[in-house]
Design brief:
The chain has 299 residues and is mainly α. Helices cover 72% and strands 1% of the residues. It has one domain: Farnesyl Diphosphate Synthase (Orthogonal Bundle), CATH 1.10.600.10. The protein has a two-stranded antiparallel sheet with strand order 1-2. It is globular and about 50 Å long. Bound molecules: geranylgeranyl diphosphate. Geranylgeranyl diphosphate binds next to helix 4, helix 8 and helix 9.
Length: 299
């Protein structure tokens, strides 16, 4: 990509990348006759609903920052969104967070039924690994990508964080517990998105390290702003139920440190996230903007 001069050019670039991601996701959700049509319809419903596509963008922008290409990174971008969509579908189930609204639409089990929603998650998870294993090249990158994604989404990270969150069961003081859950439920997917992008670009160790430092901060900013949105409580705008965490007495940044301190925390973290990208120069400007825009988002 040529050097980007203005915010509006970067925004246009991000919008174009998002549009390419939409097409790439849809292309990878076409199945042969072996897939029951209701299952395929529900998978497309869950994935193609209007999400922000943050994680695919992180894959693609990380790849580009490391000198790689959007085209090579796209299978990994789709795979992380498939996993993310599966986690949302399962999280919304009555046995978990029991939600009716997601991305401004009825949740998958409300639109279809519970069994279908469970199967949608199962099939999306399989599809994610299939896409990485069969489309990333060379084979060594595909294998490392599968291993990284498996670790980030498995029993110690995404699923483990969800289990601890549901059980309300992690050790340590309140802030340490909150951070341990969010590191696994939220930051792990962000970190692996950046890692996959870097892998497809065959990045240097220094580049991997800088992206990990950015991802740690981006993950925290994402979660704190999610809590701020939840506290602000505008379900129509956010597209999902809000205020529920505080209602259920769950730990959140806003209940723990207050709204003002949460805002102060995110400002500091965004500045750090932007600074750790210095090693990339201007090519990382879209990643810097993405971190900035997390704070200003309204959904
Ligand atoms: C079911 C294994 C399993 C895990 C569920 C996703 C998740 C873990 C829980 C959802 C609730 C939660 C607090 C998640 C953390 C924040 C998060 C992932 C929000 C949704 O992500 P966005 O805002 O959503 O990027 P869109 O719809 O834009 O893709």
């Amino acid at each position: 990509m040529p050097q980007l001069a203005t915010d509006s050019e970067i925004l246009t670039d991000l919008a174009e990348l998002r549009a390419v991601v939409e097409v790439a996701l849809a292309e990878r959700l076409v199945f042969d006759a072996g897939c029951p049509s209701r299952l395929a319809e529900a998978m497309r419903y869950a994935v193609l609903a209007p999400g922000k596509r943050l994680r695919p963008l992180l894959v693609l922008l990380a790849a580009r920052a490391c000198g790689g290409s959007v085209e090579r990174a796209m299978p990994a971008a789709c795979a992380v969104e498939f996993i993310h969509a599966y986690s949302l579908v399962h999280d919304d189930l009555p046995a978990m967070d029991d939600d009716d609204l997601r991305r401004g639409m009825p949740t998958c089990h409300k639109k279809f039924d519970e069994a279908t929603a469970i199967l949608v998650g199962d099939a999306l998870q399989s599809r994610a690994f299939e896409v990485i294993a069969s489309e990333l090249t060379p084979a060594s990158v595909a294998a490392r990508g599968c291993a990284a994604l498996g670790k980030a989404t498995g029993a110690t990270m995404l699923v483990g964080g969800q289990a601890d969150d549901l059980a309300g069961a992690t050790a340590g003081d309140d802030l340490a517990r909150l951070q341990a859950i969010h590191h696994r439920k939220t930051a792990a997917m962000i970190l692996v998105s950046l890692e996959l992008g870097a892998l497809t670009a065959e990045a240097t160790a220094e580049q991997h390290k800088a992206l990990a430092a950015y991802g740690e901060r981006f993950g925290q900013v994402f979660q704190i702003t999610d809590d701020l949105l939840d506290a602000r409580g505008d379900a129509t705008q956010v597209g999902k139920r809000v205020g529920k965490d505080a209602d259920r007495g769950k730990l959140t940044y806003t209940t723990l440190v207050g709204i003002e301190e949460s805002r102060r925390l995110v400002e500091g973290l965004v500045a750090e996230a932007q600074a750790v990208l210095d090693v990339f120069g201007d090519v990382a400007e879209p990643l810097r903007m993405l971190a900035r825009r997390l704070v200003d988002r309204d959904k």
